[in-house]
Amino acid sequence: MAQDTSHMQNPFIVGERIYLRPLEPAQDNHLYSTWMNDEEIRRYFSIYPTSDTRGKERLELLYKDGKHII
Fold this sequence. Notes:
By secondary structure, the chain is mainly alpha-helical. It has 3 helices and 2 strands; from the N terminus they run ββααα. The protein has one domain.
């Protein structure tokens, strides 16, 4: 039986209790910045802590280039 995805925003991968969707620069920049400022996450990336503004700029750049899954 097909799952109803009408309430989901741009679902990419859909599971029974969760779905993944692309990050949207206009609404997810704070979430992205929060992740990139988290010490446990940052240890796996070559990045420095960031502000919401810089996070939004980075997210927009990744979104526009079409080469990254974000």
